[in-house]
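FORM 12-B: Structure-to-Sequence Request
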């Protein structure tokens, strides 16, 4: 066999061998998943100028957290509830929503009570031998007591305001999880069921809060009731810590430790979604995070909430000044 023919045979064979090796070899960091920064926004020309300062600020905040390596994944959603303009970062990324799932459960219960008002007169005993709050890393300040009777209104309040898992389990006895699956399917909610909870994106989840705010899912009385539960949320480590005390925040948090098959912590997830009733400029803010340290994730939620609140308030003040100027004060 001539040298030229041998080379023609060997080169393709060597190439295939290298390609095969590359299937199994990857650089040391190739398996490290880096947080993304997918930004989206929607606003007409009139509202775009108001939205851009907020989007620019949250992009800087998120990028800084990524660079500090304090988060593995993060998603953010902001909507101006007055004009509908919105911006988001990684809004389609799915997280384990943990206790945030209590909000759709609450809505499903209230939807049932609309057609069956007698449910609010019913009293239910808590008889479980299991303390379901033992699974929670952030413990409720109050929980159901075994052997006592509770009204539906009280159970819903405790489940949302205190994030009491015992209250949730009692509700699931009256409203089984199959009903919740049907509720989500009926409203075309995109979600996945995992062994340790529900997976949902922030973009999808935010719809529940928007629907409560504009009363498009429940009637006016039930929407107000749901929002009053959310306004009583006991989570001072999050949004409430940085918003002025006289500003109502209708919010819910959720936290989860994700474990491997050996019980080792893979990641910590912490989320909070809320409606901030900032005078004449209310807004919806949602933040979902995944990292290693719960207290760090709490800090990230506070810092982003503070920045969004400040920019939102500043933008609202500027708009009011321009309006006053146009109407009278700047004309002589």
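FORM 12-B RESPONSE
SEQUENCE OUT:
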């Amino acid at each position: 066999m001539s040298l030229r023919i041998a080379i023609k045979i060997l080169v393709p064979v060597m190439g295939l061998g290298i390609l095969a090796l590359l299937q199994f070899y990857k650089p040391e960091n190739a398996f490290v998943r880096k947080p993304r920064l997918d930004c989206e926004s929607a606003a007409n020309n009139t509202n775009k100028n108001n939205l851009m300062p907020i989007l620019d600020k949250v992009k800087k905040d998120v990028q800084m957290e990524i660079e500090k390596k304090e988060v593995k994944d993060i998603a953010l959603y902001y909507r101006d509830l007055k004009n509908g303009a919105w911006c988001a970062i990684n809004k389609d990324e799915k997280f384990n929503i943990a206790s945030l799932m209590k909000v759709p459960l609450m809505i499903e219960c209230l939807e049932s009570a609309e057609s069956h008002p007698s449910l609010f007169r019913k009293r239910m005993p808590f008889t479980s031998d299991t303390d379901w709050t033992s699974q929670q890393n952030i413990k409720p300040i109050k929980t159901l007591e075994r052997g006592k009777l509770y009204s539906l209104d009280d159970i819903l309040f405790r489940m949302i305001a205190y994030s009491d898992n015992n209250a949730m389990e009692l509700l699931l006895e009256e409203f089984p999880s199959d009903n919740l699956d049907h509720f989500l399917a009926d409203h075309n909610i995109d979600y996945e069921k995992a062994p340790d909870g529900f997976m949902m994106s922030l973009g999808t989840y935010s719809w529940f809060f928007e629907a409560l705010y504009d009363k498009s899912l429940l009637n006016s009385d039930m929407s107000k009731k749901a929002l009053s539960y959310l306004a009583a949320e006991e989570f001072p480590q999050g949004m409430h810590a940085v918003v002025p005390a006289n500003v109502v925040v209708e919010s819910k948090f959720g936290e989860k430790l994700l474990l491997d098959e050996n019980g080792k912590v893979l990641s910590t997830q912490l989320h909070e979604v809320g409606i901030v009733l900032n005078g004449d400029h209310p807004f919806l803010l949602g933040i979902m995070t995944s990292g290693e340290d719960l207290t760090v994730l709490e800090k990230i939620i506070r810092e982003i909430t503070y920045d969004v609140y400040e920019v939102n308030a500043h933008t609202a003040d500027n708009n009011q000044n321009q309006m006053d100027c146009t109407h009278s004060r700047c004309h002589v």
